[in-house]
Design a protein that fits this description.
The chain is an alpha+beta fold. Helices cover 37% and strands 17% of the residues.
């Protein structure tokens, strides 16, 4: 497949970045990078701005992928979130995106892959909500249209005393989707991070004939909250096709994790069981809505196999971090080979 990244998408992205530029924040980041890598702050700042404006590299990507220590040729092997977004805009048809954006629509569309019970609070009485939550014991309340783990909260049946008030609270928070909590997470994941559900991210591209795997990563949460996302202290490690970790984990706050900070379980030695089954689920799900060609799937490995959590039509970039792994190249060549941009 051949093609170019959409010019309109790139122009829109540049305008958006320019309008929303927080120069003070950029300077602060440049100063932190310069201090960590013993560079001059003005040099780092100019470099960050140039690569953002000309090379579709967000400031956080510049930091996360250690661009400050890489040559231009090495940098150009890395995927960035901006490039990933351009691909999504080009290959994911607008009229079908709502099936992924709205978690309730997603659950309906991918019902055969959703093994947990769920309900729409707007269409449920307080009495039926009580029965559902008490039967589940624990549930997740979710804002249907949100990302990065925001608008997601864990609830316990034992903590609810007034079910009319509980329903009103969910409606007020716009957490219209209530799902059974996934309580049978695989022991291999519980051994690393037992406090919450840890998701596996598989990024796929469907070219009309074949579903290609572009990235494979395991996310781990910290604490007992509702999300393993980096915004809530989580981190990830890239996996090979067998599920073996490719090195230490890392997150958006420049922390590198050779082991989990709470359980001390090794991240470097981690292997995701049933990796072939996890990948196959992502491939099968990719064929349900073929109009959305580029997807980031979040799958949870349970004791009896993988279950689908959600799909993201704008997958973002899951890349290698050179200071964590020692590898100074990224995955853009694979993306180019598959997609042809």
């Amino acid at each position: 497949m051949t093609g170019k990244l959409g010019l309109r998408s790139r122009i829109d992205y540049f305008i958006y970045r320019a309008r929303n530029l927080d120069f003070g924040s950029v300077v602060k980041r440049a100063r932190e990078v310069a201090k960590k890598h013993k560079k001059l702050t003005p040099v780092v700042l100019i470099d960050m701005l140039w690569w953002s404006a000309v090379h579709d590299t967000g400031f956080q990507d510049y930091i996360d992928w250690d661009f400050v220590i890489l040559t231009r040729a090495e940098r150009e092997t890395f995927m960035t979130n901006a490039i990933s977004n351009h691909l999504a805009e080009r290959y994911d048809k607008k009229e079908f995106r709502r099936l992924f954006e709205d978690k309730i629509e997603f659950n309906k569309t991918f019902a055969s892959y959703i093994t947990r019970g769920w309900l729409d609070v707007r269409e449920t009485s307080a009495t039926d909500l009580q029965k559902f939550v008490e039967n589940a014991g624990r549930v997740m309340g979710k804002v249907p249209v949100s990302n990065s783990g925001y608008g997601v909260e864990k609830y316990f049946a034992a903590h609810v005393t007034d079910w009319d008030a509980f329903k009103a609270e969910l409606l007020r928070k716009e957490q219209f989707l209530v799902e059974e909590y996934i309580s049978d997470q695989h022991p291999a994941l519980n051994a690393v991070s037992p406090g919450l559900v840890n998701t596996t991210r598989i990024t796929t591209f469907y070219d009309g004939k074949t579903v290609h795997i572009l990235s494979f990563a395991q996310k781990f949460g910290v604490g007992t909250g509702a999300s393993d996302q980096q915004a809530f202290g989580g981190f990830f490690t890239l996996l090979d096709e067998t599920g073996k970790s490719l090195g230490p984990g890392y997150g958006s706050h420049q922390n590198i994790y050779r082991e989990h900070p709470e359980t001390k379980a090794s991240i470097v030695d981690f292997t995701l069981p049933m990796a072939a089954e996890v990948i196959q689920m992502a491939k099968d799900a990719s064929l349900v809505v073929p109009e959305i060609q580029y997807v980031g799937w979040d799958v949870v490995l349970c004791e009896n196999g993988p279950v689908l959590l959600e799909g993201n039509w704008m997958p973002g970039a899951y890349e290698n971090k050179p200071t964590a792994t020692g590898v100074r190249t990224g995955s853009r060549p694979l993306f180019r080979k598959v997609i042809g941009f």
